[in-house]
């Protein structure tokens, strides 16, 4: 009886303890569920980054345990089952890897792989952790990752998730920051582009205005100005090419570029461009060579072809002190293409410069190659090649100090894509281009490449008003002619007396150095200096050559452009000033098309005489300025 009672008590107690244990387990489980739900809410609300927890069996074998709500929303997925494929496509951005490197995903990142390797030293389980997620350490990757149009920074950590050793990945969304940075760069590029275009358009205008002013000052000897008229014509055509680049760039951006295809002789088109740049090439001892069959003809857009050739040749001339520039064309009948190569013996480029050569906002800032990172020449050439050829592809081969070769292909037979509803403005532009091309003379022409310059502190006085009172409407024709001729003669006498400095025959000759990478600018300045009969003028296209010369021979005055390739004007004058113990320091005039404020800090200690803005609009003011400086010599 006693044994039976003891057994019943034992069973009752066992049942009690069992129920108590079950109740305790239930309470603990319910508490864990509540904690888990709380943790999930906290993670989703307080961690905007994509948070992913993985458990690795090996470097390539893993299981995704958890992803927060921000991660699912960022990648637009419903659950973590879709996350594996996405993680393998979140790859290192091209800016953070070398060309030869393979594409690496965030799972394959060396930082995460190092974490996995170091996991061996950590315990695989920890029962002492009451939190669902316990973070051990954090390491930030030095790479930027992207997926489609999104960008991410990655951070990795060892963690214990539900007491199991795991890997934690944080992906911080940097897309908005990247887009903001890009918009800032584009805004800077836009401002620089407008400044560069304004400068480039001023360059031919400077020559046109100076030669025109020279005409007005010497109307009695018109026959001697045939060459000046030629210069004005060629600068006008170069100006038209620049405007065409701007118009085409705008039309390409709006996807409205129309081609005007026709049959044309390739050699003749190239020689037309050679004539435009011949005088600039001659001034640098550069031989222009056209290695093209005389009878080679293609059906394509001749004007766009000329724009491309001109842009490449101008670029080559700018960085070729001497030697040759060759344009070579050969048919590739198998693909219906014409392969064109522009070969020069210039300064050459390193691979870094080549990689950024056609970037809109890439600045090289090495030996003053494309310092501002703006200008449309090469950018437009690449885009236009895409229209007149199969693709906008340009192969570049270059070695430092050995020259460069640019090669591209265009179609031999391109069907015109023009529609019948061309705008009146486009039609007028096409007609003007054709007339400008046909008006090229057989004489040697000069080239006007666009330098990068600045503008003056001195404002040259308001332009001299040469307008005369209108003729008496009641006078007869002969009286009008006589009066008109008298006015011209009086103007010439007045100008000569006003502009000519008082120099007697015994006045010593002054040596003048003009340094400008654009030969047209040198011609324009020499035209303004014609009234100073005691000046011996030496011309230099490259500042490097000018610096070597001034160490050998004494010069009294230097007129220097500012932005030039290889060595700019400010560097040149700075080096001249450092020779103060070796040579007599010359008077320096800085001449540029931009304003002085952009270079004010660099000019501050150069002790320049004056800063003059191009184009020079008033001969009298210019001569008065120079005359006042000559008195000091």
From TrEMBL:
Give the superkingdom in one word.
Answer: Eukaryota
Kinase found in the keyword field: yes
Question: Which InterPro entries does the record cross-reference, listed alphabetically?
Answer: 2C_system_His_kinase, CheY-like_superfamily, HATPase_C_sf, HATPase_dom, His_kinase_dom, HisK_dim/P_dom, HisK_dim/P_sf, Sig_transdc_His_kin-like_C
- Any idea which GO molecular function terms this record carries? phosphorelay sensor kinase activity
- Whether Protein biosynthesis counts among this entry's keywords is no
Q: Name all Response regulatory domain ranges.
A: 511-629
Family matches, as SUPFAM superfamilies: ATPase domain of HSP90 chaperone/DNA topoisomerase II/histidine kinase, CheY-like, Homodimeric domain of signal transducing histidine kinase
Q: Where is the Histidine kinase domain?
A: 196-414
The alphabetized UniProt keywords are: Kinase, Phosphoprotein, Transferase
Where do the coiled-coil regions begin and end?
none
- Residues that the record marks as modified (4-aspartylphosphate) are 561
Record protein name field: ATPase, histidine kinase-, DNA gyrase B
Natural source organism:
Tetrahymena thermophila (strain SB210)
């Amino acid at each position: 009886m006693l044994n039976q009672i003891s057994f019943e008590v034992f069973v009752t107690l066992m049942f009690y303890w069992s129920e108590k244990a079950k109740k305790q387990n239930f309470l603990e489980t319910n508490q864990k569920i509540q904690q888990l739900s709380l943790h999930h809410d906290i993670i989703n609300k307080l961690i905007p980054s994509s948070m992913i927890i993985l458990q690795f069996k090996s470097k390539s074998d893993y299981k995704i345990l958890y992803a927060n709500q921000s991660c699912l929303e960022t990648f637009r997925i419903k659950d973590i089952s879709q996350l594996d494929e996405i993680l393998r496509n979140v790859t290192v951005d091209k800016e953070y890897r070398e060309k030869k490197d393979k594409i690496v995903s965030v799972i394959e990142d060396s930082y995460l792989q190092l974490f996995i390797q170091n996991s061996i030293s950590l315990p695989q389980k920890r029962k002492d952790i009451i939190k669902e997620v316990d973070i051990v350490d954090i390491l930030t990757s030095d790479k930027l990752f992207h997926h489609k149009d999104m960008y991410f920074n990655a951070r990795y950590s060892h963690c214990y998730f539900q007491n199991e050793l795991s890997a934690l990945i944080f992906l911080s969304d940097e897309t908005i920051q990247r887009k903001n940075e890009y918009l800032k760069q584009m805004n800077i590029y836009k401002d620089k582009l407008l400044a560069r275009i304004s400068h480039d358009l001023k360059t031919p205008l400077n020559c046109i205005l100076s030669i025109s002013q020279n005409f007005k000052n010497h109307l009695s000897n018109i026959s001697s100005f045939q060459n000046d008229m030629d210069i004005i014509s060629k600068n006008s055509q170069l100006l038209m090419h620049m405007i065409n680049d701007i118009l085409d760039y705008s039309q390409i951006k709006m996807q409205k570029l129309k081609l005007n295809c026709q049959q044309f002789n390739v050699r003749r088109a190239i020689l037309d461009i050679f004539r435009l740049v011949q005088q600039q090439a001659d001034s640098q001892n550069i031989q222009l060579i056209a290695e093209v069959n005389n009878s080679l003809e293609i059906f394509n857009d001749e004007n766009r072809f000329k724009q491309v050739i001109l842009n490449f040749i101008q670029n080559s001339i700018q960085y070729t002190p001497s030697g040759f520039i060759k344009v070579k064309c050969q048919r590739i009948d198998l693909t219906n293409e014409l392969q064109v190569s522009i070969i020069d013996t210039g300064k050459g480029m390193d691979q870094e410069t080549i990689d950024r050569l056609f970037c809109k906002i890439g600045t090289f800032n090495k030996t003053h190659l494309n310092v501002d990172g703006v200008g449309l020449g090469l950018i437009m050439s690449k885009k236009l090649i895409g229209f007149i050829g199969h693709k906008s592809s340009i192969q570049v081969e270059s070695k430092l100090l050995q020259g460069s070769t640019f090669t591209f292909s265009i179609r031999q037979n391109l069907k015109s894509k023009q529609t019948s509803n061309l705008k009146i403005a486009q039609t007028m532009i096409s007609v003007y281009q054709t007339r400008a091309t046909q008006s090229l003379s057989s004489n040697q022409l000069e080239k006007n490449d666009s330098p990068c310059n600045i503008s003056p502190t001195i404002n040259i006085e308001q332009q001299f008003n040469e307008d005369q009172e209108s003729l008496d409407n009641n006078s007869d024709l002969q009286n009008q002619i006589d009066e008109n001729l008298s006015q011209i003669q009086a103007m010439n006498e007045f100008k000569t007396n006003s502009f000519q400095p008082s120099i007697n025959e015994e006045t010593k000759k002054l040596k003048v150095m003009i340094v400008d990478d654009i030969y047209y600018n040198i011609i324009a300045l020499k035209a303004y200096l014609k009234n100073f009969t005691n000046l011996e003028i030496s011309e230099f296209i490259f500042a490097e050559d000018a610096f070597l010369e001034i160490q050998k021979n004494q010069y009294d005055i230097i007129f220097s452009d500012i932005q030039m390739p290889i060595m700019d004007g400010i560097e040149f004058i700075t080096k001249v000033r450092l020779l103060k113990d070796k040579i007599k320091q010359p008077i320096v005039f800085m001449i540029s098309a931009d304003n002085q404020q952009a270079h004010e800090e660099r000019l501050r200690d150069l002790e320049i005489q004056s800063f003059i803005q191009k184009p020079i609009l008033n001969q009298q003011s210019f001569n008065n300025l120079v005359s006042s400086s000559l008195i000091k010599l």
